[in-house]
Amino acid sequence: MSKSKLNPADLATPLSEEEFDELDEFLVSDVTSEETLTIEGLDGYLTAMAIGPTTVPPSYWLPGVWGPSENDAPAFETMDQAQRILGLILRNMNGIIISLEDDPDEFEPVFGFSRVDDSEREYIDGEAWAFGFMQGLSVVRADWQALFDSEQAREWLNPLHLMGSEELTPEEQQLIDTPEQREALTKQIPASVAAIYRFWQPHRQAVHERKLAAATQRTEPKVGRNDPCPCGSGKKFKKCCGAAATLH
């Protein structure tokens, strides 16, 4: 079997530095389009998927990694290469999830660095990361409505919006005019991610419990209408829970 084949048992393995660099190089290679996310943008994009209220299948979000158009899909040289890159992306996603579950306050986004003109000063630059995050959020925007309705949560989203949105008001643009302003906003992003992760955590847990309950119900034998009601009332199911508006 080719080493590039996807093995579910391997998907929880974090990327090594060499694998991270391999994915980075692929994303900016001639095989991809100019619209494909950079490694920083991909990290932001996957983080938006990881911290939101719903579990989004890769088939839904993966096309957005390559760009807005179907024509942006990479021209993989072989099926093995496609499987290899997909595996790296999925493992990167799982690594983000594991890091957040372990301690959201210690989560470290993959930021870039920038310099202005010939200055020796290097600034932390979260623009590409935030752009990827906002792109990821747009994929599932309807699911995030409760966050948009919360004034406090909108404040958490503010540095991500300012750094990553394509359309800003003139007043907002003034807040990111200088590299110092952009670096200050970039430094706020980790705390925002942790807060948004916690905001959605109860919802994610509730969804998980509902899925677990549904799976449990499917494994239990079906109760016939003439069988004793499982609530223990002694009545037949059709005369008890099978007919009642509220279950016991």
TrEMBL record:
This is UPF0149 family protein. InterPro entries: SEC_C_motif, YgfB-like, YgfB-like_sf. It holds the Pfam family SEC-C.
